[in-house]
Design a protein that fits this description.
alpha+beta; six-stranded antiparallel β-sheet; about 1000 residues; seven-stranded mixed β-sheet; 27 strands; 30 helices
Length: about 1000
């Protein structure tokens, strides 16, 4: 790893070193280009300056020649021009300001030798400017010459003494220039360069223009010579001309050297400074020093430009130091370009290198991710909004039977069979529509026809915005399915074994317990009664142990379902007291019950399982306590809508437990201290079963305890509020409720005579008119001839059950809207679903609470506009019952069920003792008749008929609160789902003793009343 790190660091240094070299190269190139640009710009400025200066010089020279032409016109138009006129004209030109380089303005008269004397005399007598004339005037230099060019008019006056009378033609070069001008009629430059000593010393030059007599022809040289009378001229200093032509500010950066060209037309056409050229002007003022030659210094721009000078040529050599033409920005621009080039290149290089490295890392990560995803034991894929594959791992490609490239961009419809593809797309479309993750099982058939069970997780992408795709991960759980099926089969085999063993054991146990109970009533010998009591209690203990094992097995297999029934808390606790009160008294303990005053008494849930948990906790408290009281408390800890969370506590002052012992609780076949098993007994299943039952009821279980101070076991259960909760303390039904029912015509369809009589009396007391049918066929016949406001329909009846009868009612257009309310002793969810599916409007479980029945009838009558209404149900009127768990088909736990529940009996008959006594006796009569009919069916081995009779007897038993007897009838009814003759005989054998117990209890409860 260390070696790899060093390699990576070395590679990074080399890469960045290369980047630095590249940056320096780019920066150098930019520096060179910027420097070249700066030089080009400076050179362009130099060209502009030099050409401007050249133009200024040419313009200034031309202005001087124009001045000469004005003077020529003056003399030509006035043949007798006086000195005064000449003086005034020159003064009007403002030479000093307008032509500062001009040092003299003159007029030279052409005097033939024959007129020399007369000319001299005329000048001496001229007083137009000088009052005394010019008596000393003469022509200089002295001597006879064929013709003279005498300076006669001179300005300024200071030149008269020095130059007046000078024969300028005496100089051969000047004479040649004058002759050239005379013959050509053009301005001619002085052929003589004059060095003026100054100060300062400078070069002087002159220009002259011939003057011809006015009116004479000038077409040819001869005519011009004949008309020639003289010439006007000016003398000027070259330095002053240059300075006047060029503003000093324009010359600031420039150095100018002016030459008079020896050859006006170079042979090669290129201007260059030659040794023969005469220096006219040097801007440093030193005409003796040799000026720098063009191209002699690379730090300078230099250029030689021509300046035309009256037929001659001047060479203007301009030069300037390059740095002087650079602006402040130009000086920094190349370095700035270098810095920008280096920095920019490094940035771009770093950016590109980062992108490259990120890309390489991304590719490496993608490769690693692909390797990981291809290695995991799962199917991983990603889809877009069109449900097309955008990524699949190797296992997904393998199960779909295609390569990865063949899958990308395709939909499931192109890869799977229609139904499978539609199922997958339906699930995934739900993920897109809802934006919620899908977790669940899917089924897939591969190309070989092999079925795969997949546990899939599909997560939407793009949230919280619109969903843009999904990523899925599916794990093959086919093997788990196979193992689960094997486990389910094993569990079913165990359940079947336990069920069979239960029946095999419970049948003789019921006989043992029943016979022992009957024998105890007839045996008076104390020793024999002691034996029989031990047999009876041992049988009860063994039966309880069997029930615990069966409950534990059902919970483990997930087959234990809860019922949802109406019950009262006080009745529930009264059952606890009746079953455990004697055991508490034997140990000198007091059972105390505490229900919160504000807590409603009536709830909906599984009272049998609640009672089972409370019995277990309370019996444990009694078992492990030797003195004091056992407190059982009920409080409401939470309320949500139609449900409430009740908290039950069982507190004792027993042996208590420490933390280690409490940690071992609620474990199968375990007690806090193994020694307690030997001392107190028990299987160790009670708390486990209690915990699992509490969790099935949506609650939790726990314990607080200290050694020697006792324990408090608590649990919570989520229960549904009963519709009768608001009426539980009302003895009388509200008059307005009865007013709605009064006069109603109700058809009671019931095959049980006892239930018929109870129902008729209750409804007639409420003011309704009741007609009874014994089965569905009779009900249809009655409905065909008479109109009824409501049908109270039992479900299980001979000839035609309630389901079929209701379906036929709904199929008849005349009866389709009739109110049909189901009444059945079966409270399972399947029974409720079957009733509603058959078309019944409402569902009531037996025993029927009168208040509940009356309120339910009043509600439906109001919805339908009162009695006598049209009777067509509206779609929103039908109340959908909450599904309930079907009751267990196993034999009831005789220990946990009261023989006679007076609270149920009082609720059914509005606490009327006369009716209660009357109908308990009626129940005993019908129950005995029912047992006789069952024995006949048993003799015929007709288990179906036996099950129907069991259902009918169960309804009557529940109405009076004979729960133990009702439990046996329910077990007989369950034979329809699967049972044998031996089991039927055992149950039928137990019915007689159970009914005898009910009769005995009725006698005890109503001993004080002799009412029939």
């Amino acid at each position: 790893m260390h070696t790899l790190s060093k390699r990576g660091a070395g590679s990074g240094i080399r890469i960045w070193a290369g980047g630095l070299l590249l940056a320096l190269a780019v920066g150098g190139a930019l520096y060179a280009g910027a420097a070249r640009t700066v030089d080009d710009d400076a050179e362009q400025r130099f060209d502009n300056l030099t050409h401007g200066a050249q133009h200024s010089l040419i313009t200034r020279v031309k202005s001087y020649s124009d001045l000469l032409r004005g003077l020529e016109a003056l003399f030509r138009t006035s043949e007798q021009l006086t000195r005064r006129q000449f003086h005034d004209y020159v003064a009007g030109l403002d030479i000093a300001r307008q032509f500062p380089a001009i040092e003299s303005v003159n007029y030279a008269v052409a005097v033939p030798s024959a007129q020399r004397a007369a000319f001299i005399e005329a000048v001496r007598r001229d007083t137009s400017l000088a009052p005394r004339g010019y008596p000393a005037f003469t022509i200089r230099p002295a001597g006879e010459r064929p013709e003279y060019a005498v300076l006669t008019y001179l300005e300024p006056d200071s030149l008269l003494a020095e130059r007046m009378g000078v024969d300028i033609g005496a100089n051969p070069l000047v004479a040649q220039s004058l002759a050239q001008a005379r013959d050509s009629g053009e301005v001619s430059a002085s052929g003589q360069v004059i060095m003026i000593k100054g100060p300062p010393a400078h070069v002087g030059l002159g220009m002259r223009l011939p003057v011809y007599r006015n009116g004479m022809p000038q077409g040819s040289v001869a005519e011009r010579r004949a008309a020639y009378q003289g010439s006007v001229g000016i003398g000027f200093g070259v330095a002053q001309l240059v300075h006047s032509a060029l503003e000093r500010s324009a010359l600031e950066p420039l150095h100018l050297t002016l030459y008079s060209a020896a050859d006006a037309t170079p042979a090669d056409g290129a201007l260059r400074i030659t040794p023969q050229d005469r220096l006219l002007f040097n801007d440093d003022g030193d005409l003796a020093a040799t000026p720098p030659q063009p191209g002699s210094d690379a730090d300078y721009f230099d250029q030689v430009l021509p300046v035309a000078y009256q037929g001659g040529l001047w060479k203007a050599h301009f030069r300037v130091r390059k740095a002087e033409l650079y602006s402040p920005f130009d000086r920094y621009f190349p370095w700035l370009a270098l810095a920008v080039g280096v920095a920019g290149t490094l940035l771009i290089y770093g950016y590109i290198f980062t992108l490259y490295r990120s890309r390489r890392n991304a590719v490496a990560q993608r490769t690693l991710l692909d390797t990981v995803l291809d290695s995991v034991d799962a199917y991983v894929y990603m889809k877009d909004a069109d449900l097309r594959y955008r990524y699949v791992n190797a296992r997904t490609a393998k199960i779909l039977g295609r390569s990865v490239q063949q899958l990308i961009g395709r939909q499931d419809g192109e890869l799977m069979l229609g139904d499978a593809a539609a199922s997958v797309q339906r699930t995934e479309r739900q993920v897109f529509d809802s934006g919620a993750k899908f977790v669940g099982e899917e089924r897939f058939v591969d190309a070989q026809g092999q079925v795969h069970h997949l546990w899939s997780v599909k997560v939407p992408l793009g949230l919280p915005g619109p969903v843009t795709g999904l990523i899925g991960l599916s794990t093959d759980v086919t093997e788990l399915h196979r193992l689960k099926e094997q486990a389910d089969a094993a569990s079913q085999a165990k359940s079947d074994f336990l069920s069979n063993m239960s029946h095999e054991i419970r049948t003789p146990m019921n006989s043992i317990i029943g016979m022992a109970h009957l024998a105890l009533k007839s045996v008076a010998d104390a020793r024999q009664r002691d034996y029989l009591q031990k047999i009876f209690h041992s049988g009860q203990h063994l039966l309880g142990l069997i029930n615990d094992i069966l409950d534990f097995s059902k919970i483990e297999a997930g087959k234990l379902e809860l019922e949802v029934l109406d019950f009262r808390l006080d009745t529930l606790l009264a059952n606890i007291a009746s079953q455990l009160g004697d055991a508490a008294v034997v140990k000198g303990l007091a059972l105390q019950f505490d229900i919160a005053p504000e807590l409603p008494q009536r709830w909906r849930g599984d009272p049998l399982r609640l009672e089972q948990v409370l019995l277990n906790l309370t019996s444990n408290a009694i078992k492990f306590s030797d003195n004091g009281s056992i407190f059982v408390r009920v409080r409401q800890s939470e309320e949500r809508g139609s449900h409430g969370m009740l908290r039950f506590e069982v507190q004792d002052r027993g042996i208590g437990m420490n933390q280690e012992e409490m940690a071992q609780l609620f474990r199968s076949f375990h007690q806090a201290d193994p020694s307690t098993t030997r001392k107190y007994g028990g299987s160790g299943l009670g708390l486990v079963i209690s915990k699992q039952l509490v969790e099935l009821m949506g609650g939790k279980v726990g314990v607080y305890s200290q050694p020697g101070l006792g324990s408090t076991f608590w649990f919570t259960a989520r229960l549904e509020k009963s519709a009768q909760a608001s009426d539980e303390r009302i003895a009388e039904v509200e008059p307005e409720v009865l007013g709605v029912i009064r006069g109603a015509s109700i058809l009671l369809v019931e095959d049980n005579v006892f239930s018929q009589q109870v129902g008729c009396e209750l409804l007639e007391d409420a003011g309704a008119t009741v007609c009874v049918a014994c089965n569905g066929r009779e009900a249809l016949e009655l409905l065909a001839h008479r109109r009824y406001d409501c049908v109270l329909m039992d479900v299980q009846m001979p000839e035609m059950d309630g389901f079929e009868a209701t379906r036929r009612i709904r199929a008849d257009p005349q009866l389709a809207g009739l109110l049909v309310i189901a009444m059945t002793a079966n409270a399972g969810s399947e029974d409720r679903a079957r009733c509603l599916a058959a078309g019944m409007d409402e569902f009531l479980t037996k025993p029927i609470a009168p208040n509940l029945l009356f309120h339910l009838l009043a509600k439906w009558f109001r919805l339908r506009g009162g009695i006598g209404g049209i009777g067509h149900a509206r779609a929103g009127d039908r109340l959908v019952a909450v599904p309930k768990a079907p009751p267990s088909a196993a034999s009831p736990d005789l220990r946990d069920t009261a023989i006679l529940d007076l609270a149920t009996l009082a609720l059914t008959f509005s606490n009327d003792p006369v009716k209660m006594r009357k109908y308990t006796q009626l129940f005993l009569d019908t129950a005995r008749d029912g047992i006789a009919e069952m024995e006949q069916a048993m003799a015929l081995e007709d288990l179906g008929r036996l099950a129907d009779l069991g259902h009918r007897s169960k309804s009557s038993a529940l109405a009076v609160g004979a729960h133990a007897f009702a439990g046996l009838c329910a077990s007989i009814e369950g034979l329809r789902l699967g049972g044998d003759l031996q089991q039927a005989r055992a149950l039928l054998t137990a019915l007689g003793p159970a009914l005898a117990q009910v009769a005995e209890q009725i006698s005890v409860e109503f001993a004080a009343s002799d009412a029939p």
